[in-house]
Amino acid sequence: MLYFTNKIWFYKKNHYNETIFSCLIFDKMNESYERKLIQVLGDLGLNEGESQTFVAGLQIGATSVQQLSKVTWINRITTHVIVNKLITKKLFLETTSGKKRLVYPNKIDILTTLLQQKKLELNRLEHDIQSTKSIINLIQIKKENYPKVRFFEWWEGIIQMLKEVIHDKKDMLGISNNSFSRFFDAAVTKKLYEKRIPLGIKTRLILEPWFDDIRYSPKGKTKYLVDIKILHQQHLFDGGLNIWWNKVALHSYKEKMVITTIIENPEIAKMMRFLFETLWLQSKKYPV
Protein backbone atom coordinates (compact mmCIF):
# COMPACT_ATOMS: atom_id res chain seq x y z
CA MET A 1 0.00 0.00 0.00
CA LEU A 2 1.50 3.38 -1.07
CA TYR A 3 0.33 6.69 0.45
CA PHE A 4 0.28 10.06 -1.33
CA THR A 5 -1.37 13.38 -0.38
CA ASN A 6 -4.93 12.52 -1.27
CA LYS A 7 -4.49 9.13 -2.93
CA ILE A 8 -3.94 5.60 -1.74
CA TRP A 9 -2.49 3.15 -4.25
CA PHE A 10 -3.23 -0.51 -3.66
CA TYR A 11 -1.26 -3.23 -5.33
CA LYS A 12 -1.54 -7.00 -5.54
CA LYS A 13 -0.10 -9.88 -7.54
CA ASN A 14 -2.23 -11.64 -10.15
CA HIS A 15 -1.90 -15.31 -11.07
CA TYR A 16 0.79 -14.40 -13.60
CA ASN A 17 2.77 -12.83 -10.73
CA GLU A 18 2.20 -9.42 -12.26
CA THR A 19 1.74 -6.40 -9.98
CA ILE A 20 -1.66 -4.76 -10.43
CA PHE A 21 -2.10 -1.21 -9.07
CA SER A 22 -5.38 0.47 -8.20
CA CYS A 23 -5.88 3.98 -6.84
CA LEU A 24 -8.34 5.37 -4.27
CA ILE A 25 -8.67 9.16 -4.48
CA PHE A 26 -10.31 11.10 -1.66
CA ASP A 27 -10.21 14.47 0.10
CA LYS A 28 -7.49 13.97 2.72
CA MET A 29 -8.14 15.87 5.95
CA ASN A 30 -5.44 17.98 7.57
CA GLU A 31 -3.70 15.77 10.14
CA SER A 32 -4.18 18.19 13.05
CA TYR A 33 -7.92 18.41 12.26
CA GLU A 34 -8.09 14.65 12.01
CA ARG A 35 -6.44 14.18 15.43
CA LYS A 36 -8.74 16.76 16.97
CA LEU A 37 -11.84 15.11 15.52
CA ILE A 38 -10.72 11.65 16.69
CA GLN A 39 -10.12 13.09 20.18
CA VAL A 40 -13.61 14.66 20.32
CA LEU A 41 -15.20 11.45 19.04
CA GLY A 42 -13.32 9.56 21.77
CA ASP A 43 -14.63 11.99 24.40
CA LEU A 44 -18.14 11.36 23.07
CA GLY A 45 -17.85 7.63 23.59
CA LEU A 46 -16.31 6.15 20.44
CA ASN A 47 -13.28 3.92 20.82
CA GLU A 48 -10.14 4.44 18.75
CA GLY A 49 -11.11 2.00 15.99
CA GLU A 50 -14.61 3.46 15.67
CA SER A 51 -13.22 7.00 15.54
CA GLN A 52 -10.64 6.15 12.86
CA THR A 53 -13.20 4.30 10.76
CA PHE A 54 -15.71 7.13 11.02
CA VAL A 55 -13.13 9.77 10.05
CA ALA A 56 -12.02 7.62 7.11
CA GLY A 57 -15.64 7.31 6.03
CA LEU A 58 -16.04 11.09 6.14
CA GLN A 59 -13.05 11.51 3.81
CA ILE A 60 -13.80 8.66 1.36
CA GLY A 61 -17.60 8.79 1.20
CA ALA A 62 -19.60 5.71 0.22
CA THR A 63 -17.20 2.79 0.22
CA SER A 64 -16.86 -0.88 1.01
CA VAL A 65 -15.78 -2.34 4.32
CA GLN A 66 -12.72 -3.70 2.54
CA GLN A 67 -11.65 -0.22 1.43
CA LEU A 68 -12.19 1.17 4.94
CA SER A 69 -10.05 -1.64 6.28
CA LYS A 70 -7.22 -0.72 3.90
CA VAL A 71 -7.38 3.01 4.67
CA THR A 72 -7.47 2.57 8.45
CA TRP A 73 -5.04 -0.36 8.55
CA ILE A 74 -7.54 -2.25 10.69
CA ASN A 75 -8.08 -5.88 9.69
CA ARG A 76 -11.23 -6.58 7.71
CA ILE A 77 -13.04 -8.74 10.32
CA THR A 78 -12.56 -6.05 12.98
CA THR A 79 -13.65 -3.36 10.50
CA HIS A 80 -16.89 -5.31 9.84
CA VAL A 81 -17.59 -5.32 13.59
CA ILE A 82 -16.79 -1.59 13.89
CA VAL A 83 -18.98 -0.65 10.90
CA ASN A 84 -21.92 -2.61 12.33
CA LYS A 85 -21.54 -0.75 15.64
CA LEU A 86 -21.45 2.61 13.83
CA ILE A 87 -24.61 1.63 11.93
CA THR A 88 -26.29 0.72 15.24
CA LYS A 89 -25.29 4.14 16.58
CA LYS A 90 -26.76 5.69 13.40
CA LEU A 91 -23.41 7.21 12.53
CA PHE A 92 -23.10 5.10 9.36
CA LEU A 93 -25.74 4.22 6.81
CA GLU A 94 -25.55 1.41 4.29
CA THR A 95 -26.67 0.86 0.72
CA THR A 96 -25.88 -1.49 -2.14
CA SER A 97 -24.34 -0.99 -5.54
CA GLY A 98 -25.21 -4.07 -7.52
CA LYS A 99 -24.23 -6.91 -5.22
CA LYS A 100 -21.74 -4.77 -3.36
CA ARG A 101 -22.47 -3.42 0.13
CA LEU A 102 -21.44 0.19 0.63
CA VAL A 103 -21.38 2.20 3.84
CA TYR A 104 -21.17 5.96 4.31
CA PRO A 105 -21.44 8.53 7.16
CA ASN A 106 -24.85 9.80 8.11
CA LYS A 107 -25.33 13.41 7.01
CA ILE A 108 -27.01 14.45 10.26
CA ASP A 109 -25.14 16.64 12.79
CA ILE A 110 -22.96 13.80 14.07
CA LEU A 111 -21.34 15.58 17.01
CA THR A 112 -24.66 16.86 18.34
CA THR A 113 -26.16 13.38 18.00
CA LEU A 114 -23.22 11.83 19.87
CA LEU A 115 -23.45 14.53 22.53
CA GLN A 116 -27.16 13.82 23.04
CA GLN A 117 -26.42 10.11 23.32
CA LYS A 118 -23.69 10.87 25.85
CA LYS A 119 -26.10 13.01 27.87
CA LEU A 120 -28.66 10.19 27.88
CA GLU A 121 -25.99 7.78 29.07
CA LEU A 122 -24.91 10.22 31.80
CA ASN A 123 -28.53 10.68 32.89
CA ARG A 124 -28.95 6.91 33.09
CA LEU A 125 -25.67 6.67 34.97
CA GLU A 126 -26.79 9.39 37.41
CA HIS A 127 -30.04 7.53 38.02
CA ASP A 128 -28.14 4.26 38.53
CA ILE A 129 -25.74 5.99 40.94
CA GLN A 130 -28.64 7.34 43.01
CA SER A 131 -30.21 3.87 43.15
CA THR A 132 -26.88 2.31 44.01
CA LYS A 133 -26.26 4.89 46.77
CA SER A 134 -29.53 3.94 48.44
CA ILE A 135 -28.56 0.26 48.23
CA ILE A 136 -25.12 1.04 49.71
CA ASN A 137 -26.76 3.05 52.51
CA LEU A 138 -29.07 0.14 53.29
CA ILE A 139 -26.10 -2.23 53.42
CA GLN A 140 -24.18 0.17 55.67
CA ILE A 141 -27.17 0.64 57.99
CA LYS A 142 -27.63 -3.10 58.13
CA LYS A 143 -23.95 -3.61 58.83
CA GLU A 144 -24.04 -1.01 61.62
CA ASN A 145 -26.68 -3.14 63.33
CA TYR A 146 -24.35 -6.12 63.40
CA PRO A 147 -22.62 -6.42 66.79
CA LYS A 148 -18.89 -5.81 66.73
CA VAL A 149 -17.35 -8.59 68.80
CA ARG A 150 -13.78 -8.83 70.09
CA PHE A 151 -12.14 -11.58 72.14
CA PHE A 152 -9.28 -11.24 74.65
CA GLU A 153 -7.36 -13.60 76.90
CA TRP A 154 -5.98 -12.93 80.36
CA TRP A 155 -5.19 -9.31 81.25
CA GLU A 156 -5.71 -7.79 77.80
CA GLY A 157 -9.51 -7.80 77.95
CA ILE A 158 -9.93 -6.09 81.30
CA ILE A 159 -7.19 -3.55 80.52
CA GLN A 160 -8.76 -2.83 77.12
CA MET A 161 -12.17 -2.37 78.73
CA LEU A 162 -10.90 0.11 81.34
CA LYS A 163 -9.01 2.07 78.69
CA GLU A 164 -12.10 2.30 76.49
CA VAL A 165 -14.21 3.53 79.40
CA ILE A 166 -11.70 6.38 79.83
CA HIS A 167 -11.65 7.07 76.08
CA ASP A 168 -15.46 6.99 75.77
CA LYS A 169 -15.89 9.09 78.95
CA LYS A 170 -19.02 7.16 79.92
CA ASP A 171 -20.18 5.86 83.31
CA MET A 172 -19.73 2.13 83.86
CA LEU A 173 -21.95 -0.56 85.38
CA GLY A 174 -20.57 -3.86 86.59
CA ILE A 175 -21.49 -7.22 88.09
CA SER A 176 -18.80 -9.59 89.35
CA ASN A 177 -18.01 -12.32 91.84
CA ASN A 178 -14.86 -12.47 93.93
CA SER A 179 -12.90 -14.46 91.34
CA PHE A 180 -11.93 -11.12 89.82
CA SER A 181 -9.45 -10.47 92.62
CA ARG A 182 -7.71 -13.81 91.96
CA PHE A 183 -6.75 -12.89 88.43
CA PHE A 184 -6.23 -9.14 88.35
CA ASP A 185 -3.68 -7.02 90.14
CA ALA A 186 -5.57 -4.33 92.03
CA ALA A 187 -2.63 -1.95 91.64
CA VAL A 188 -2.88 -2.09 87.84
CA THR A 189 -6.61 -1.50 87.68
CA LYS A 190 -6.32 1.14 90.41
CA LYS A 191 -4.14 3.31 88.13
CA LEU A 192 -6.78 3.19 85.41
CA TYR A 193 -9.51 4.04 87.94
CA GLU A 194 -7.49 7.06 89.04
CA LYS A 195 -7.42 8.39 85.46
CA ARG A 196 -11.22 8.38 85.50
CA ILE A 197 -11.50 10.69 88.53
CA PRO A 198 -10.82 14.04 86.74
CA LEU A 199 -13.21 12.96 83.96
CA GLY A 200 -16.02 12.47 86.48
CA ILE A 201 -16.68 8.89 85.31
CA LYS A 202 -18.90 7.15 87.84
CA THR A 203 -19.14 3.41 88.51
CA ARG A 204 -21.93 1.32 89.94
CA LEU A 205 -21.06 -2.25 90.93
CA ILE A 206 -22.99 -5.27 92.15
CA LEU A 207 -20.58 -7.59 94.00
CA GLU A 208 -20.54 -10.66 96.22
CA PRO A 209 -20.66 -10.08 99.99
CA TRP A 210 -16.93 -10.58 100.42
CA PHE A 211 -14.31 -8.49 98.64
CA ASP A 212 -11.17 -6.62 99.58
CA ASP A 213 -10.24 -3.59 97.52
CA ILE A 214 -9.30 -0.09 98.68
CA ARG A 215 -11.51 1.39 95.97
CA TYR A 216 -14.55 -0.04 97.70
CA SER A 217 -13.87 1.26 101.20
CA PRO A 218 -16.08 4.18 102.33
CA LYS A 219 -13.25 6.65 101.61
CA GLY A 220 -12.31 4.92 98.36
CA LYS A 221 -15.89 4.92 97.08
CA THR A 222 -16.02 8.71 97.41
CA LYS A 223 -12.62 9.19 95.78
CA TYR A 224 -13.20 6.83 92.88
CA LEU A 225 -16.87 7.78 92.37
CA VAL A 226 -17.98 4.20 93.04
CA ASP A 227 -21.38 3.10 94.32
CA ILE A 228 -21.77 -0.54 95.40
CA LYS A 229 -24.56 -2.98 96.14
CA ILE A 230 -24.24 -6.57 97.35
CA LEU A 231 -25.60 -9.77 95.80
CA HIS A 232 -27.89 -11.82 98.02
CA GLN A 233 -25.93 -15.00 97.40
CA GLN A 234 -22.33 -15.99 96.73
CA HIS A 235 -20.98 -17.92 93.74
CA LEU A 236 -24.01 -17.47 91.51
CA PHE A 237 -21.64 -17.41 88.55
CA ASP A 238 -17.92 -17.48 87.85
CA GLY A 239 -17.53 -14.39 85.75
CA GLY A 240 -18.38 -10.76 85.38
CA LEU A 241 -20.28 -8.21 83.30
CA ASN A 242 -19.55 -4.56 82.54
CA ILE A 243 -21.68 -2.08 80.60
CA TRP A 244 -20.78 1.40 79.37
CA TRP A 245 -22.02 3.53 76.49
CA ASN A 246 -23.03 1.07 73.70
CA LYS A 247 -20.61 -1.65 74.82
CA VAL A 248 -20.80 -4.77 76.96
CA ALA A 249 -17.84 -6.74 78.34
CA LEU A 250 -18.41 -10.34 79.41
CA HIS A 251 -15.73 -12.00 81.57
CA SER A 252 -15.31 -15.71 82.21
CA TYR A 253 -13.03 -16.79 85.10
CA LYS A 254 -13.54 -20.51 84.63
CA GLU A 255 -10.74 -23.12 84.53
CA LYS A 256 -8.12 -20.70 85.88
CA MET A 257 -8.39 -18.80 82.59
CA VAL A 258 -9.79 -15.37 81.95
CA ILE A 259 -11.60 -14.75 78.67
CA THR A 260 -13.14 -11.35 77.93
CA THR A 261 -15.62 -10.71 75.13
CA ILE A 262 -16.36 -7.07 74.28
CA ILE A 263 -19.57 -6.58 72.30
CA GLU A 264 -20.32 -3.22 70.70
CA ASN A 265 -24.02 -2.86 69.91
CA PRO A 266 -26.55 -0.30 71.22
CA GLU A 267 -29.46 -2.74 71.57
CA ILE A 268 -27.44 -5.38 73.41
CA ALA A 269 -26.04 -2.70 75.74
CA LYS A 270 -29.56 -1.37 76.34
CA MET A 271 -30.85 -4.85 77.22
CA MET A 272 -27.92 -5.55 79.58
CA ARG A 273 -28.38 -2.16 81.22
CA PHE A 274 -32.06 -3.02 81.88
CA LEU A 275 -31.04 -6.34 83.48
CA PHE A 276 -28.44 -4.55 85.61
CA GLU A 277 -30.98 -1.97 86.84
CA THR A 278 -33.42 -4.76 87.72
CA LEU A 279 -30.75 -6.55 89.75
CA TRP A 280 -29.60 -3.25 91.28
CA LEU A 281 -33.05 -2.66 92.75
CA GLN A 282 -33.03 -6.14 94.30
CA SER A 283 -29.52 -5.91 95.82
CA LYS A 284 -28.47 -4.61 99.24
CA LYS A 285 -26.75 -1.29 99.78
CA TYR A 286 -23.06 -1.42 100.79
CA PRO A 287 -21.87 -1.12 103.50
CA VAL A 288 -24.58 -3.13 105.21
What topology emerges from the helices and strands here?
Elements: E1 2-3, E2 7-13, E3 19-25, H1 31-43, H2 48-60, H3 65-72, H4 76-88, E4 92-97, E5 100-105, H5 110-145, E6 148-153, H6 155-168, E7 172-176, H7 180-183, H8 186-196, E8 203-207, H9 218-223, E9 226-230, E10 239-244, E11 247-252, E12 259-264, H10 266-282, E13 284-285
**Rough outline:** rod-shaped
Distance from first to last alpha carbon: 108 Å
The assigned CATH architecture of the largest domain is 2-Layer Sandwich
| CATH topology heading of the largest domain | Endonuclease, Chain A
Strand order of the largest sheet: 6-12-11-10-7-8-9-13
CATH class of the largest domain: Alpha Beta
CATH H-tier superfamily of the largest domain? Endonuclease Chain A
Domain count, please report it: 2
Number of helices: 10
Number of strands: 13
Whole-number average pLDDT? Answer: 78
Mind summarizing the main beta sheet? Answer: 8 strands, mixed
Structural class: alpha+beta
Sketch the topology as an H/E string, one letter per element.
EEEHHHHEEHEHEHHEHEEEEHE
Helicity range: 40-55%
Computed over alpha carbons, the radius of gyration is 41 Å
- Beta-strand residue percentage: 15-25%
Molecular structure report:
A hairpin with a 3-residue loop joins strand 1 and strand 2. This protein has 288 residues and is an alpha+beta fold. It is rod-shaped, with a radius of gyration of 41 Å. It folds into 2 domains: 2-114, Arc Repressor Mutant, subunit A, CATH 1.10.10; 148-285, 2-Layer Sandwich (Endonuclease, Chain A), CATH 3.30.870.10. The termini are far apart. Helix 1 (31-43) packs across helix 2 and helix 2 (48-60) crosses helix 3 (65-72). The protein has an 8-stranded mixed sheet, sandwiched between helices. Strands 1-2-3 form a 3-stranded antiparallel sheet, with no helix packed on it. The longest helix is centred in the middle third of the chain and has 36 residues, at 110-145. The chain is built from 10 helices and 13 strands.
